[in-house]
Write a structure and sequence with these properties.
single chain, mainly beta, 5-stranded antiparallel β-sheet, 0% helix
Length: 205
């Protein structure tokens, strides 16, 4: 499937120079997978726009307990990947056994010693992670064509979206069947006339 072309347009009456975060949530039942701030848009003035791409392709990677990051591998739903010991050291590679759920991606820690972080990347940016995957354990990832957007403060790209991060006006946008669209930010303002921020899709093709 082709990449989705998106364009965030600020038509809000915002007077606080709000930041906007875009991320995805893991649809697999692995509750220890954490969402990450995939895109953070800053200083988006009134009538400014911020174009970005939602690629359909995503990649798996891993970080080991020695602080080594392994090369990203293009992932497919239903596939399994493992961190294992090779002659050169730790490697991330395809594993022949398919995932238990054909709509998920599994990343196993098949080392005898040392936890790893399992990671998913989209468009070269970290999308989700499961940290401290113990030997013999795995991470399960599944992402539906949906993004979440809201306003944040003091959040940067790559920040883990845990309980310490407050997202206001959180909105889910369904991208199923979309090839391009504008994401319109409206609302905001100051004083008694201020309204809630809204994020809506427009000019959808």
């Amino acid at each position: 499937m082709a990449d989705i072309q998106l364009n965030l347009i600020n038509q809000a009456g915002d007077v606080n120079n709000s930041d906007y975060v875009i991320f995805q949530k893991n649809a697999a039942t692995d509750v220890n997978v954490q969402s990450v701030a995939w895109i953070v848009v800053k200083n988006l003035g009134h009538s400014d726009n911020h174009p970005f791409i939602y690629p359909m392709e995503f990649f798996v990677s891993s970080k080991d307990s020695d602080g080594n990051y392994m090369p990203q591998i293009a992932a497919q739903n239903g596939d399994t990947y493992e961190v294992a010991m090779a002659r050169s050291g730790h490697v991330l590679r395809n594993f022949p056994t398919p995932a238990a759920n054909p709509t998920e991606v599994e990343v196993w820690n098949n080392l005898s010693l040392g936890a790893v972080d399992a990671q998913i990347y989209r468009d070269g940016k970290l999308l989700a992670t499961k940290i401290n995957v113990a030997p013999g354990s795995k991470a399960n990832f599944q992402f539906l064509p949906k993004i979440f957007i809201g306003t944040v403060s003091q959040v940067n790209q790559g920040t883990v979206m845990n309980s310490n991060v407050t997202v206001q006006y959180l909105t889910e946008l369904d991208l199923l069947g979309v090839s391009s669209a504008d994401i319109i930010v409206s609302g905001g303002g100051a004083g008694p006339n201020a309204t809630a921020f809204k994020f809506t899709l427009a000019n959808v093709t």
